Structures are given as structure tokens and as C-alpha cells.
Amino acid sequence: MEKLGKQTIKFSNPPTILECSSIVGPKEANGPLAKFFDQTLEDEFWGEKSWEKAESKIIKEASNMVISKAGISSQDIDCVFAGDLLNQCISSSFGLREINLPFFGIFGACSTFVEGLSLGSILTESFANYVLCATSSHFCSAEKQFRFPLELGNQRPPSSQWTVTGSGATILSKNGSGPFITHITPGKIVDMGIKDANNMGAAMAPAFADTLIAHFNDTGRSPSYYDGIFSGDLGYVGKDIAIDIAKSKGYNIKSNYNDCRCSYF
Fold first, then answer.
1. Residues 16 and 172: beta-carbon distance below 8 Å
2. How confident is the model over 137-176, as pLDDT tens digits?
3. Which of 113, 143, 173 is the last residue of a domain?
């Protein structure tokens, strides 16, 4: 590994994304990305008694699916990085407890999956042959966690996000023919004082823009180098803020940037 600039790591032997899997809920199944998901659900409970249990089931099955698709045994995996949006990462820890592998519970909100890929890449550069990275979220449990339980029937303002119900998982391999993870740029906490729980996009956009600009500075690349630039869940309001911040720093990302939440629905 080699450190570039202030925040970026360049891998000497880039890990391969060996395989990936995804399971999503019914709203996502009706969105523009529907054909790309491995499995879609007919309802948010998926046969469970609570939304939290449903989320644990989703990440469990997505992880089992990616292991099967990769054609390896679960015992070939050296460790797992997984997280979700709930306190103490209960969806991930309960969902993956039966996998019986060294487990790192991580929390990065919308960046959790990329955080897992980043840490997993560092491990494959050192000792690990295979690393499982997974994350999950559930609209109904996330609303209870961050805003208001759905039973209260609170009106949602235009700035509030709609958290994805679903899970994504991938296997990183020390060896393979790609696609590769060649660089990672960890972000910093950037707090601009936004306290509105219904406007999390505005709260997160400054950190996203700061990380993106750090990546450009460290690598010497411009936005046009990439086919696509994506943020996690800034929503339409946060997306516009991120574009404006980047533009104020001399980077025009508008033509090839999109937010994942805006892509889903």
C-alpha cells in the first residue's frame, strides 16, 4: 500500500470484487433499477414478526447468496465487515451470527458498505484471501430509529429521504481478474450544524463533497476521469448541495454524478 496526499491509499495489489448480491423490498422492485437486483420481496415483513427481524433475514440471505455465487465455502472467508442503521448493528449481528466467522460490526450510515469495502481491501492487501462485506437497511426500522415510528403518521417534508429496504453483499478476493479496488479515500467528519432529522441530506452533503475533493487532490484526477460518481443517500436536496459545494471548490461533478437514493426511486 502507498499513501497519496493526505487521505488516499493506493493498493499495490488491488483486491478483486469477486461477486456481489442484492435483495430489495417492494418499492425498490418497482424502481428504475429493478432488473439489476438478484431478489425482490413482495412485502416488508418477509414472513417475520417485525421489521427488524425482516432486515436481519435480508442481510443473512444476501450474504449466503453472494457466497454461493462466488463458488466458495463460508469457511474460506477470513472475516466479515457488516453493518446497518440500527443501534448496536443488531440487524447485521443477529443476521450473520450463524455464519460463525470473525466479525467486524461497522457503522457509517449511508457509507457503511463502502467503509466495509475499504477496510476489507486493506485486509486483502495483508493477510486475507476472502473478505465478506455486507450492509442492510429497512425503511420502516430506519424511520423508527432516526425520525418517528410509522404508526404516528407524521407528515414527511420534501427534504426527508426514503431509506432503501434491502441488503447488498460482496466478496473481496486477494486474487482475481477484476473489477479492482485500486484506491480508497476515507472521509472526515464535517459538521455544518444541521440539526433537522428530516434533512439529513444537507447534514451529510458537506462531508461527501469534502471527501470527493480530497480524492481529486490526492490522486490528481478530475471528475471527468470517472464514468460515474455516486453518493449514498443524500436525496435530491443533499445532492444539489453537494454539486454546489464541489463547484465552489472548482470541481464540476454535475454531468456524471448521481445519488444512490435518487437512482432507486
1. yes
2. 999 999 888 888 888 888 888 888 889 999 999 999 999 9
3. 173
Residues 213 and 107 in one domain: no
One domain, residues 232 and 156: no
Residues 150, 53 share a domain: yes
Tens-digit pLDDT profile for residues 38-49: 999 999 999 999
DSSP letter, residue 155: P
Residues in CB range of 87: below 8 A, 6 or more apart? 145
User: pTM surpassing 0.90?
Assistant: yes
Spatial distance between the Cα atoms of 209 and 180, rounded to a whole number of angstroms:
23
In a domain? residue 220: yes
Instruction: Compute how many other C-beta atoms are within 10 angstroms of the C-beta atom of residue 252.
Output: 13
Radius of gyration over every alpha carbon of the chain, rounded to an integer in angstroms: 18
